[in-house]
Amino acid sequence: MQPVLQTSELSVTQGGREILKGINWQVFPGDFTALIGANGAGKSTLVKAALGLLPLSRGEVRLFGQLLHRFKKWDQIGYLAQNSEAINFGFPATVTEVVSSQLCAATGLFRGPNADQRRAVSAVLAQVGLSTKARSLLGNLSGGERQRVLIARMLVTSPQLLILDEPTTGLDEDNSRVLLELLLKLNQEQNAAVVIITHHLADVAGLVNQVYSLSGGKLKLPPVESEGASFSSSEVM
Ligand SMILES: Nc1ncnc2c1ncn2[C@@H]1O[C@H](COP(=O)(O)OP(=O)(O)OP(=O)(O)O)[C@@H](O)[C@H]1O
């Protein structure tokens, strides 16, 4: 089976310091992976580098088998960055417009969504519990609702690889559970690969089938046995 994400000897240097040191990592269709590690370990750096958002100092990345610089099918990948609060939510757009904007690559920026796309937007807003807010301006939403708009935007293209950087930050207990259940459903029913960066392993322990730990610039499978997750003690080579 071809990995949807593969890094080979990936190294990243930031501010003169080597943050990631020769990381070999593979994510396969159907994987549900947690990426854990202390603050500053380099988790966000790893996923950003894997998505071409940061330069590599060494190594290579393949997405769906393609070298990163040749990869074009970005609608196959959904990425939710950390700290979505940094996004300009004052922009005068409605929830529907923001989610629809993700479909622009298919329709062109100045053409409205077609009937299928409008249905997809409605469906994804229902999935994240925002149907009643479809016409609301972003600026009038709570922090948790904004986070759910970004999640809906990420999901509307039905990506096969979902990467979420601490996605439950700002969500209450109910909405965190709804999001994790939705990710599990996409994983199980559509075989989507999910990578979730989290500091709350207990919240995802029953969902994930592997846990990688980042420490000292290296990626490891931690030596833990847990129900619902298979871990081994080896370092990922
Ligand atoms: N632009 C930058 N210039 C210099 N150093 C940076 C830059 N961006 C990140 N770093 C450093 O890289 C290291 C890894 O940061 P990163 O955000 O990837 O960690 P993280 O594991 O995601 O942390 P957290 O759990 O706190 O989100 C940190 O020491 C950070 O200070």
Automatic annotation (TrEMBL):
It holds the Pfam family ABC_tran. The keyword S-adenosyl-L-methionine does not apply. GO terms for molecular function: ATP binding; ATP hydrolysis activity. Residues 5-236 form the ABC transporter domain. Signal peptide: none annotated. Keywords: ATP-binding, Nucleotide-binding, Transport. SUPFAM superfamilies: P-loop containing nucleoside triphosphate hydrolases. Belongs to the ABC transporter superfamily. PANTHER family: METAL TRANSPORT SYSTEM ATP-BINDING PROTEIN TM_0124-RELATED. This is Metal ABC transporter ATP-binding protein.
